[in-house]
Amino acid sequence: MQIAGNPELLFLFAVIFGIFDYSTMPVLASIVSTHIGVRMMGLTLRLLFAGHSAGGAAGAMMGGYFFDTFNSYAWVWIASIVLAMLAAVFSWMIRETRDTQGAAAPAAA
Question: Residue 98 gets which letter from DSSP?
Fold first, then answer.
């Protein structure tokens, strides 16, 4: 990244990264509300956000550790691909639990 000495490019990167990184929050909020419920939604989203932040920090640290150990980014890519595949499998295992017929019926007054 050639952003050293160019604050405009740094701010542009920060805005674009923020848009793409947090664009999943509405989808995540929908999944949490349908699977866990609205009552526990705040706590659940805080825990998920904390885990997301901790994972980002651990990923940056492990990337540096792998590079220092192996003098190559190959193992960083391998670990990233394996973790992405594992996340895909876990996402695939999420069951849909909402009642589609109950949602279509109007609420009784």
Answer: S
What does the DSSP assignment read for 9-28? HHHHHHHHHHHHHHTTHHHH
Alpha helix (H) ranges present in the chain? Answer: 7-22, 25-35, 41-70, 74-92, 100-104
* Position with higher pLDDT, 104 vs 30: 30
Q: With contact defined as beta carbons under 8 Å apart, do 94 and 31 qualify? A: yes
Q: Region 100-108: what's the mean pLDDT?
A: 50
Q: Does the pTM exceed 0.85?
A: no
How far apart CA 40 and CA 38 sit, in angstroms, is 6
Inter-residue contact 41 to 33 (CB < 8 Å): yes
Residues ≥6 apart with Cβ < 8 Å to 62: 76, 79
Phi-psi region at 99: left, alpha or beta (left = phi > 0; alpha = psi -120 to 50): beta
